[in-house]
Amino acid sequence: MDEFYDLLFGQYKDYSTLHITLEFIAILFGILSVIFSARNHVLVYPTGLVSTIIYVYLLFQWNLYGETIINAYYFYMSIYGWILWSRKDSQHHDLLQITTMTKDDKIKSLIIFTASVAFISVVYIYFDKFTHQWAYIDTFITGLFFVGMWLMAKRKIENWLFLIAGDIIAVPLFFIKGYTLTSILNIFLTVIAIIGYLSWKKTLQNKSRIQ
Predict the structure, then answer these.
(1) Is the residue at 195 inside a domain?
(2) Which single residue of 3, 105, 170, 195 could bond 186 by disulfide (Cβ 3.0 to 4.6 Å)?
(3) What are the transmembrane regions (predicted)?
């Protein structure tokens, strides 16, 4: 039992109390953000802002530059999405409804993915971090999350598919790097994201029946 505990959490004995506390707070607000997102609630954004601000600091300290930039991007997209999701019509209904991707959305998503992967690659080359195998995985995840967050701000149901794929890949990445709590968080986020996708899909189907 002690060996299993050391495998999962042994690395934390060398971490500062501040970093452990910050990671826990970031995880808590990250969970709240995804739960609100699954419920299609605008509080996804203010809770997400708290988590992303903390993770920007922590991930930079952990030398995960792709993930650092992802969370900085999350911060921007959270503000952008918060504005879009908060808009109401004269009857106080959301102006931005859940929809599926259009052809234009697919083209823009491809551009965002390609540009983000290229940008993060340049960052890793600059910091000479492509000597680590996990850097290639981190770069790919960045592309998935960039697209997923942009689609979420637009309330496109496909955002969940990109986020689910990114969360699944991130689980072993963070574990290999020794950040077990964040790795466990991504397992939880994957489950919630699947629930969120199914919930949004049901909402979209009910809307189609009404129309």
Answers:
(1) yes
(2) 170
(3) 15-36, 43-62, 68-86, 107-127, 133-153, 160-176, 182-200
Q: What is the Cα–Cα distance from 54 to 13, expressed in whole angstroms?
A: 20
Distances from the Cα of 43 to the Cα of 37, 48, 149, 190, angstroms: 8, 8, 15, 19
Q: pLDDT tens for residues 134-188?
A: 778 888 988 999 999 999 999 999 999 999 999 999 888 888 777 777 788 889 8
Confirm whether 187 is domain-assigned.
yes
Helix (H, G, I), strand (E, B) or coil at 99: strand
In a domain, 6, yes or no: yes
Q: Is residue 17 part of a domain?
A: yes
Provide the 10 A C-beta neighbour count for residue 202. Answer: 10
Q: How far apart are CA 124 and CA 64, in angstroms?
A: 9
Domain that holds residue 16: 2-88+100-210
Q: Which of 151, 159, 141, 142 is nearest to 197 (CA)?
A: 159
